[in-house]
Amino acid sequence: MSSKTNSSSNKIDQYRRRLLGGSAAAVAGLTLAPGLILNTVQAKPADQAVSNKNRWGLLIDTKKCADGCTDCVTACNTEHGLREIHGPATDAQWIRNVTLKNKSTGHTVNMPVMCQHCENPPCVDVCPTGASFKRDDGIVLVDKHICIGCRYCMMACPYKARNFIHEVLTDQLPVAPRGKGTVEACTLCVHKVDNGDGTTACADACKHGAITFGDLNDKNSLISKKLEMTGGRQLRAELGLNTGVRYQGL
Amino acid sequence: MNSRQLPKLLLTSALLLWSIASFAASDFSGPDRDAGGNIVPTPKGESCVAPTADIRANHMDYLKHKRNETMRKGIRTEKNSLVECINCHVTPGEDGKVARINDDQHFCSSCHRVASVTLDCFECHADRPVEYFSRSPAGHDVFALNPALKTNTPHVVMNRKGQ
């Protein structure tokens, strides 16, 4: 009897701890379906290094992605201070709106394409200075302090995800240092990830719910559950890059 | 040493002593001054993360160490972070405006100009505190500098073509 009482009070304590702990750590909860509630993304203490326990990624449902909608692109530009300089031909685009058309059926698919945050990133392989690198949690970044602007990574990337900055920039945002002569791409909103926000600017802005951010290593995360239930494809999966960004409805 | 050289030597040593004394005085009393003796903006906080002499001598190493920790490992503590240095040290001047990096009064450039050190941090990094950048409460449609705070540069809101 006493042991039974103990175990039930332990459970209550656990519950309380979880509830109280929620205020310290950012916990995003979401009801996916009746009886399926998902809690994801715990804030990492600021003094702790990222680890390969997490693998951050995105799941993009192209069926929900509306034709002509550019909310994710605008949100990304806003978040990182990307502004028009000389037009789309040379301006940085961290997210590209891509439309695929099946020539035989005429069926078109809209989707945002950004850095796919590969597990085996070709951009990192070819970088001569070590500027292009992958964090332990799977986010692929450019160390602009040592980037020499050679643009090998832009050639190597199968997704055309990287951009070269041709012009002197001013008024960059504190969260997104950017400058002339360096290469840049989607950072998977690394500043938000480190802050424990549990979302990216694009996922946050998508009113159609087409973009899901989450931890691919966490089997209980929303993104993993969605992948488990409805699947998701990699772009150019044959390259074996194991991308962190997955697509549905292609 | 002949008698002609003695006055020269005395004068030189007197000048040297005077410059050391005046440097020491500027270092330890009165408002914060840069290497040229100009008054630099008063920081917000009560004390820096390390003694002034230490920061003056080693700030570049601290910043570089911190930058690698932050970028490569995602360690985002406030100490020695460039953003936090700016948040605290770049404060409005008497005219209520916050100096930009090209102004003599900017905390960083005031000293680097005198020391003749080229500073390229701010070709990419923000030269003003985080509070000078705001987001419209409605969401992501507008990016602008915080209108509530005075700034001395116009800011243009631009969107990609067709948006």
Features:
heterodimer; A: 250 residues; alpha+beta; Alpha-Beta Plaits; 3-stranded mixed sheet; two-stranded antiparallel ribbon; 7 helices; 11 strands; 25% helix; B: 163 residues; mainly alpha; 2 domains; two-stranded antiparallel sheet; 4 helices; 2 strands; 39% helix; elongated; disordered C terminus
Plain-language structure description:
- Chain A is built from 7 helices and 11 strands.
- Chain A has one domain: Alpha-Beta Plaits.
- With 250 residues, chain A is an alpha+beta fold.
- By secondary structure, chain B is mainly alpha-helical.
- At the A-B interface, helix 2, helix 5 and helix 6 of A face helix 2 of B.
Strand order of the largest sheet of chain A: 10-3-11
Q: SSE string of chain A, helix = H, strand = E? A: HEEEHEEHEEHEEHHEHE
Task: Determine the fraction of residues in helical runs of chain A and give it as a percent range.
Answer: 25-40%
User: What is the CATH topology classification name of chain A?
Assistant: Alpha-Beta Plaits
Taking the sheet with the most strands of chain A, its summary is: 3 strands, mixed
Q: Kindly state the mean pLDDT of chain A as a whole number? A: 87
For the termini of chain B, the CA-CA separation is 81 Å
**Which percent band covers the strand fraction of chain B?**
under 5%
Portion of residues within helices of chain B: 25-40%
Number of separate strands of chain A: 11
Question: What are the segments of chain A in which pLDDT stays under 50 over at least 5 consecutive residues?
Answer: 1-6, 19-28
What can be said about the biggest beta sheet of chain B? 2 strands, antiparallel
Largest interface: A-B, 50 and 35 residues
